[in-house]
Write a structure and sequence with these properties.
By secondary structure, this protein is mainly α. The protein is globular, with a radius of gyration of 13 Å. Helix 2 packs across helix 4.
Length: about 110
């Protein structure tokens, strides 16, 4: 179960900052997941990842810098606007993988 975002602008700023602080390898995976996820299924929980596209985009992501990766991921994260129950963690990938979530709070 998930919730739609309903946070302060400060919380969104914190989430983006926390996304930027993820390991580059995680950003590469999130980027590739978004690239391989069918755009027409972005509001469907049953869409499948196109593995051929995923593998190609994962390799391509290695050549991108952190700002380029976040610049692609964050607008999709905002568009998805989904978080965990309670509103604590923002989904940064289309599947809500626990390791691809970031907090709306400042990191300790």
């Amino acid at each position: 179960m998930s919730w739609e975002w309903s946070h302060t602008s400060e919380a969104y700023h914190n989430a983006k900052t926390n996304l930027q602080s993820l390991a580059k390898a995680n950003l590469e995976i999130i980027y590739a997941e978004w690239k391989a996820y069918p755009a027409d299924a972005r509001n469907s929980s049953s869409a499948n990842l196109n593995m051929e596209i995923y593998e190609r985009e994962l390799e391509r992501a290695k050549a991108l810098n952190r700002d380029q990766l976040v610049g692609y991921i964050w607008p999709l994260t905002e568009q998805l606007a989904t978080c965990t129950n309670g509103g604590h963690l923002a989904w940064c990938c289309p599947f809500g993988c626990q390791c691809h979530m970031v907090s709306f709070s400042t990191k300790a």
